[in-house]
Amino acid sequence: MKKVVVLTGAGISAESGLKTFRDSGGLWEKYDINDVATPEAWDRNQELVLEFYNARRKQAIEALPNPGHLALVELEEKYNVTIITQNIDNLHEKAGSSNVIHIHGEIMKAQSSINPEFVYPLDDWKLNIGQKCEAGYQLRPNVVWFGEPVPMMIQASEITTKADILIVIGTSLNVYPAAGLIDVAKAEIPKYLIDPQELNIIGINNLTHIKKKASKGVPQLADILLREYN
Ligand code: OAD
Predict the structure, then answer these.
(1) Residue 196: CB within 6 Å of ligand 1?
(2) Which architecture characterizes domain 1-18+65-104+150-230 according to CATH?
């Protein structure tokens, strides 16, 4: 089976009701990254950081996958599909995708604020001050903040290097190292970008931009790939 690697960003979940970060009305318009998404923010005001991610978790629990997520599941009929997502929501899993790598972490998990190896699943939307890891330290969201290492990048890069087809969906490609994955894929493989906006991408070979929202563009591309490539 050919290997399809899919890099997703907030845009794929937009039509499920979850806000993107940098679009007009996006999360970084309402919140300052430095107040909620850095280790320094956590040191300054844990309550505010927990509140921000509790809201994300509440919305993620309520959200349903859209046709964009679902079309990626269908691709598994004929392709070996790995999804590398920058999203902390669990909509790819809810849709039924088998291989999902969360390079920026997962909102439905908590981690120890002292030892990132202590990770715990959450089923409620609220993570509170006073909830502690087994070593007695406050739990924080299991997400990657700005300024922190991105441990899943090594695995994500290795998989992307071996891709036969690369699909990039709903990401402004502003945040590194995730955005660099598009450069890691082999030059000769077909690459597809699904995003309603023009992105400033230069020097990428064999790139087709499907300028549509994920709910339309991903099923359309999945149809083509299921018919043509096998
Ligand atoms: P952005 O908000 O930066 O970009 C969202 C992209 O989705 C834009 O290119 C939009 O044009 C596109 N978009 C909007 N609606 C869409 C739709 N219905 N279908 C398809 N595309 C659509 O979000 P990301 O690129 O995911 O990291 O942001 C990357 C990282 O920055 C996030 O993982 C997060 C954030 O800060 C951390 O918090 C570490």
Answers:
(1) yes
(2) 3-Layer(aba) Sandwich (3.40)
Q: What is the pLDDT of residues 160-215, one digit of tens each?
A: 999 999 999 999 999 999 999 999 999 999 999 999 999 988 889 999 999 999 99
**What tokens appear for 66 in the block?**
């859209």
- Helix (H) / strand (E) element for 205: namely none
| DSSP 8-state secondary structure symbol assigned to residue 138 | B
Partners of 138 in the β-ladder: 132
* Segments making up each domain of the chain, as ranges: 1-18+65-104+150-230, 19-62+108-143
Q: What is the pLDDT of residues 87-120, one digit of tens each?
A: 999 999 999 999 999 999 999 999 999 999 999 9
The preferred substitution site among 16, 24, 53, 86 for testing ligand 1, maximizing ligand atoms within 8 Å of CB, is 86
Q: What is the pLDDT of residue 200?
A: 85
* Domain range 19-62+108-143, CATH architecture: 2-Layer Sandwich (3.30)
> Of 90, 86, 29, whose CA–CA distance to 59 is shortest?
90
In this prediction, residue 126 carries a pLDDT of 97
Q: What residue has token string 């994300």? A: 56
Tell me 197's DSSP state: S
102 is catalytic: no
